[in-house]
Amino acid sequence: MNKARQNPLNAVAAHGALILYTLIALFPVFVILINSFKTRKAIFREPLALPDADSFSMIGYETVMKQGDFFLYFQNSLIVTVVSLFFILLFGAMAAFALSEYRFRGNTLMGLYLALGIMIPIRIGTVAILDLMVQTGLVNTLMALILVYTAQGLPLAVFILSEFMRQVSEDLKNAGRIDGLSEYTIFFRLVLPLVRPAMATVAVFNMIPIWNDLWFPLILAPAEETKTLTLGSQVFIGQFVTDWNAVLSALSLAILPVMILYVIFSRQLIRGITSGAVK
Amino acid sequence: MKSPRIKSHVIVFLAPAVLVYTAIMIFPLFNTLRLALYTEADQVRMFVGLENFRTLFGDPRWSESFWNALANNFWFFVIHMLVQNPIGIALAAILSHPRLRFAAFYRSAIFVPTILSFVIVGFAWKLILSPIWGIAPDLLSAVGLKSLFAPWLGKEEYALTTLALISVWQFVGIPMMLIYAALLSIPEEVLEAGEVDGITGMAAFWKIKLPLILPSIGIISILTFVGNFNAFDLIYTAQGALAGPDFSTDILGTFMYRTFFGFQLQLGDPHMGSAIATAMFGIILVGVCIYLFGIQTRLKRYQF
């Protein structure tokens, strides 16, 4: 690279700006985490100090464990997220394969129909969705949430996956056909393994919004035994507003699983976004 | 494969996705639009045509709340466009600088708020801005600006802007990532050609890179628009369903939620809720159409 684009002063300014913004981005999370391990007095006296032997306390976590059923909430969130992702990927990949592989009447129209949902948020139909769930007796079940999230995730999944499936070699599939493989075997044994990176991208894109959603758990499944972690912590914190130890601990417990998921999947997520999957 | 007859395996492949999507998304969407034309009296559903919309826009008790929510929602959107997207573009421009060290670290760290739920974000900022805890006033007094502090979330004139900025803080990672991807896809030869002509540094950004990333900026704008006009969670966690103080942070999402489920003395009304949802649908549809037909078709796309 030539010298025209290198200037030490610029590099310092660039790092300065990025460090400043990184601090802004991480500061609130940091403050919540360190204060969740402190006594009530220390929280107010020195909010920015790290917990030391004197100010360390787990009282907040004890309250949370006693009062809230966070393990159940966590389990509900996990079931809803994992099962929804499974259906989004399976149904999405099947539909994407049908649209990208076969020519049939109405193919383009079907593609457009499925793409409608990319821009129109599913929340607009909430009144009728609740109606539907009441009629089918699915209110306050995890199934209601799974169905809604599957429907919400499918449009983008079909769109992204069919882009990738068009790139799978035609020869490979035809070779399979000559060997007498059925269309189902070709899809599950030949095509699916090849689009695995795209499936991972779709999964990561859908995972965070499903895990974090508050609207549908609040409306479709607010019962104690079906609360997700997001709704559970919202209700818990709402009840304990004045107990700062408990609120800070509950927030930290809600941050923890997402941070773990992020550390595991951040490379996949960033690669997914930057590879132009959403262009 | 010329035969246009649909084969059985095509149907098997398409059926699950189409069924779930139609039953849970498209059907309820149109059913909501239909329910907006009904009302309920003595537990009997009656067709009333456009009566609900006449109430919503004509009855001062309703129309005041509606226009208030719509105006707030627009302000919410304007702040995102003026603050979130320029910061996102600036961060992406810095990050895409070749040979920048620790770029991956900065990228991951700045994206952290985006993965947190609204519940965490809403409460965390509520605590930090709280005058009781005093983190915000302490930080301001450290730089000698203590007089600027006010309980921002509790003041009618600041609350909405404060919430919009919190939301900007949360979502700045998305424009940053998308623009970053667009900047990386600009080929080296184009930039080198510019250098030969003496265009470097800031000039290269304004004259070469920015025009090339305009399509991505368009996508970000429409994503921001749809996201903002369907927002709810942050306001609900930070200010509750009443979107206080005195409805100054009420946006369409919270207005619809209150109308649909009721609050305090008012009973929930699914039909008026549907009418508001229909209005939201209309607004989003207009926005998407303006983008698809007015903006996207006029942007020049360059293929390398």
TrEMBL record, chain A:
The keyword Isomerase does not apply. It is a multi-pass membrane protein. It is found in: Cell membrane. The chain crosses the membrane at residues 12-34, 78-99, 111-130, 142-165, 186-208, 246-265. Keywords: Cell membrane, Membrane, Transmembrane, Transmembrane helix, Transport. PANTHER family: DIACETYLCHITOBIOSE UPTAKE SYSTEM PERMEASE PROTEIN NGCG (PTHR32243:SF24), MALTOSE TRANSPORT SYSTEM PERMEASE-RELATED (PTHR32243). The keyword Transmembrane helix applies. This is Carbohydrate ABC transporter membrane protein 2, CUT1 family. SUPFAM superfamilies: MetI-like. Belongs to the binding-protein-dependent transport system permease family. Residues 74-265 form the ABC transmembrane type-1 domain. Its main location: membrane. The lineage of its organism: Bacteria, Pseudomonadati, Pseudomonadota, Alphaproteobacteria, Hyphomicrobiales. InterPro entries: BP-dep_ABC_trans_perm, MetI-like, MetI-like_sf. Pfam families: BPD_transp_1. It comes from Roseibium denhamense.
UniProtKB/TrEMBL annotation, chain B:
InterPro entries: ABC_transporter_permease, MetI-like, MetI-like_sf. It is a multi-pass membrane protein. Residues 70-293 form the ABC transmembrane type-1 domain. Its main location: membrane. The keyword Transmembrane applies. The chain crosses the membrane at residues 12-30, 74-96, 108-128, 158-183, 212-232, 275-294. Gene3D superfamilies: MetI-like. The keyword Secreted does not apply. Pfam families: BPD_transp_1 (PF00528). Keywords: Cell membrane, Membrane, Transmembrane, Transmembrane helix, Transport. It is found in: Cell membrane. Belongs to the binding-protein-dependent transport system permease family. This is Carbohydrate ABC transporter membrane protein 1, CUT1 family.
